[in-house]
Amino acid sequence: xxxxxxxxxxxxxxxxxxxxxxxxxxxxxxxxxxxxxxxxxxxxxxxxxxxxxxxxxxxxxxxxxxxxxxxxxxxxxxxxxxxxxxxxxxxxxxxxxxxxxxxxxxxxxxxxxxxxxxxxxxxxxxxxxxxxxxxxxxxxxxxxxxxxxxxxxxxxxxxxxxxxxxxxxxxxxxxxxxxxxxxxxxxxxxxxxxxxxxxxxxxxxxxxxxxxxxxxxxxxxxxxxxxxxxxxxxxxxxxxxxxxxxxxxxxxxxxxxxxxxxxxxxxxxxxxxxxxxxxxxxxxxxxxxxxxxxxxxxxxxxxxxxxxxxxxxxxxxxxxxxxxxxxxxxxxxxxxxxxxxxxxxxxxxxxxxxxxxxxxxxxxxxxxxxxxxxxxxxxxxxxxxxxxxxxxxxxxxxxxxxxxxxxxxxxxxxxxxxxxxxxxxxxxxxxxxxxxxxxxxxxxxxxxxxxxxxxxxxxxxxxxxxxxxxxxxxxxxxxxxxxxxxxxxxxxxxxxxxxxxxxxxxxxxxxxxxxxxxxxxxxxxxxxxxxxxxxxxxxxxxxxxxxxxxxxxxxxxxxxxxxxxxxxxxxxxxxxxxxxxx
Length: 582
Ligand SMILES: Cc1cc2nc3c(=O)[nH]c(=O)nc-3n(C[C@H](O)[C@H](O)[C@H](O)COP(=O)(O)OP(=O)(O)OC[C@H]3O[C@@H](n4cnc5c(N)ncnc54)[C@H](O)[C@@H]3O)c2cc1C
Prior knowledge:
This protein has helices at residues 2-22, 35-41, 60-70, 86-90, 101-113, 129-132, 164-177, 269-281, 307-315, 319-339, 344-360, 365-371, 388-392, 451-455, 489-510, 519-533, 563-570, and strands at 94-97, 117-120, 184-185, 188-196, 201-208, 211-217, 219-222, 244-247, 261-265, 284-289, 295-296, 383-384, 397-401, 406-407, 411-413, 419-421, 424-427, 442-444, 473-475, 514-517, 578-581. By secondary structure, it is of the alpha/beta class. The chain has two domains: 86-229 and 432-581, FAD/NAD(P)-binding domain; 238-294 and 342-375 and 377-427, FAD/NAD(P)-binding domain, CATH 3.50.50.60. The protein binds flavin-adenine dinucleotide.
C-alpha cells in the first residue's frame, strides 16, 4: 500500500510540475467534474488543525457561500462597476474612520469602483489591531489561511497561526498593492461626524497636527473596531503604583520583564498570549482571574509551515483555496450544534475540556477549582491553549481567583487578602467592546440625534451596519456582527465591504442623495436577532463576557447565525430596505 501511495504521489507531483511549466491556467474549482467528489472528501479529519471528521453534508446554501468566498466575494451588483459614470464618481466622496481590516475592506471596494475615498486613522500607522498590538506573544488564534482576505489570499504565511507582525505585514502589502495607502491619513483623530440635512452630506471633524479640520463626504463609514478602545478597570490605589503599568494594546516598547515581579490582570485571549512569554523570564508572575476560560488544544498552533508546504501554497494551483475551504467547511459543520445552549454537543465539549484541564494540571485540586469554568463552553470566547495549563504548574506563577481589590506602591492585593509583589502591571482587561464606534467619536444623524443616545443601553443596527435616521452612514464590526461561531473578523470585513460598496455604488449610479434603512426593516431584523440569541450558549445567565452589555446582560456583539446565513443576507443589497431621496 505504501509503495502505491508513493508512486501515486510521484506521479501527481510530475503532473503538477508539468502543468505549471506549461503555463496553462487551472480551471476554477466549480468547473471541475471532480469538484463534488472533492467536497465530499473535504469532510476528512484534519488532525494537525485539531479538527475531527465533519459529520454533516454541505447544504446548497453552504456550498454557494463557499464557492463565492473562494472566488473572493466578487460584486454581484455592478460587477466591476464599469457602469458608473466617471463624472458622477468624481463628484462623490466616502470618508472612512479607521484603518483596520474593516476600514481597509471598504476602501478596497471604493478603490475597485474608482470612487474617491479617504481613510482617517488616529494612530501613527494603518492596520488597526495589528499595528496597535505588539506585546510579546501576540498572534492570531484563527488559522492564518482563514484570517486573510478571500480576495487576497496569502501564499506566504510562515505560521499556521500568524504572529501579529506577520498579519500587519500582509495587510500593508495588500494595501500598497491596491493603491489604498495613498488615500490613508494617519494621526487624524475623528471627533465627530454630523449629518447636514440641507445638503445630505456628512461633516467629519478631525484633529490633525493639533488643528481641527473638516471633511465633507456623501457617505461616512465608522470602522473604528470593537477592540480598539482599551477598558482599564478602576482599582483603588492605582495612582500610587510606582512601577510601570500599561494596557496590552498600549504596550510600552522595550518593556523588559526579566527578573521582575509582574502582575497581569485578566485571563482572556490577550493574557493567554502574553503570560507564557512573561513567565519565561519574570521572577514571579501573578495573574488575577476575573472569568475562567475554556481553551482547546490545537497541535499546529505554534508550528511554522514547512518549506515544502510553503512551496505548495505558492505554486500548486488552488492548494491554498482548498486548504482554506476545508477549514471553513469544518467551521460550518462544528459550530451550529456546539453553540446551542444545553445541546449534547455542548455538554460533551464541556466534559472533554474539563478532563483536558484536569489532566494538564495533574489533577491539582486547587488549580482545578480555580481553572475549570462553571459556565458552559462557547459562552465566552473559545481560546487556543497556549501552554496555559503547563505554565500554571511553574514555580514562578500564581493564579488568583478573582479581581484585584487594591493597588499599593509595589503590590497588588487580591479579594481574599492575597498580596502580589509588583514591579510591572499589565492590564489584559479588554476593550470597550459594547460601545462600538461611539467609544471614540460622536455621530449625529437627522435632527442632531446622537448615536449613543439613540442606542441607549442596547446598540442595534440593521445587519450590524445601518440605523434609521442616520442616512448614508454605515458601521463595520457593528452590533451583532462578531462571528464567535467560527470564521474570522476578516470574513465580517469582506461581507460588510461588499455590502457597503454596493450601497455606495447604487448612490453613485442612481443619484440617490440619501439612503436610510427603514425603521421597520431594522426592527424586524433585530427582533429576529434577539430571538436567535436565546438558543445560544452566549446568552448563559451565569457567564460574563465582552459580548454582553454590562448593564443589561444582553448579547450585543455576536452574530447568532451561520456564516452562510449572514452571507445570504448581505451578498446583494436590497435597495427596498432603504428610504431613498433623490
Ligand atoms: C490582539 C487581538 C487579536 C485578535 N485575533 C483575532 C483572531 O485571531 N481572529 C479573529 O477573527 N479576530 C481577532 N481579533 C479581532 C479582530 O479581528 C480585530 O480586532 C480586527 O482588527 C478588527 O478590525 P476593525 O477594522 O474592525 O478594527 P481595528 O483593527 O480595531 O481598527 C480600528 C481602527 O480605528 C481607529 N480609530 C478608532 N477610533 C478612531 C477615531 N475616532 N479617529 C480615527 N481613528 C480611529 C483605531 O485607531 C484603529 O486603527 C483580534 C483582536 C485583538 C485585539
